[in-house]
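re: ur msg from earlier - yeah i can do the adenine complex, just paste it... oh wait u already did. ok heres what im feeding in:
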Amino acid sequence: MEIHVITAFPQTLIGPLSDSMLKRAQDRGIARFFLHDLREFGLGKHKQLDDYPYGGGAGMILKPEPIFACVEKVRETHRVDCPLTYLSPTGSVFNQKLAVEVSFRSHLFLLCGHYKGIDERVRQALVGEEISIGDYVLTGGELAALVVADAVVRLLPGVMSDIDSADTDSFQTGLLDHPHYTRPESFRDMSVPSVLLSGNHQEIANWRREQSLEITRNKRMDLYKKYMDL
Ligand code: ADE
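and the outut:
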């Protein structure tokens, strides 16, 4: 998968992309990231990117010219023809289902907003879809782009060592994940539930399912009702 990100703050992405799963995916040639620095397309001597809103009010707006120029350059230079995804609190809320859908695409083209948002003409003419990572406002789309990229890239075949691992994720099944334990068997007077040591795979599967149901019912009644079709 090729992931192109347009951002005025590429440094914010470099650390997380150089570590752990996202690094492994790149090392294995499964995902390639391209960071496109919006500042290079800024206007004038000061490489201006933002301006005051027409009609007044607080906050600065990203100007259309640098974004149009950058998007057109990326489309031309890298032959990217997939829709442009704008990270914004007004988008559809990202979830595991969307992560799975996106993981089947060959390209992702992400636009990070900043300040109060983008000039509406960018949305009208360039944006194909809008994604929010939750009902809160971040200072920019960079962290949201990382969240989306991380959730999607870990699903790509070959990234996680255990191919079944994603199938049992929280949300993948519609339920929250059950508890996990590793060695030692007893730690500070807390022991591993004996069923997990029994070697009885059917009993272990039953226990995990009961735990998932219980945890989901206690923590996320919305998911539980949906799952039980209530
Ligand atoms: N940019 C600012 N807030 C955001 C959010 N909640 N999701 C995606 N992008 C954003």
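cool cool. The radius of gyration is 22 Å. ping me if u need the other ligands too
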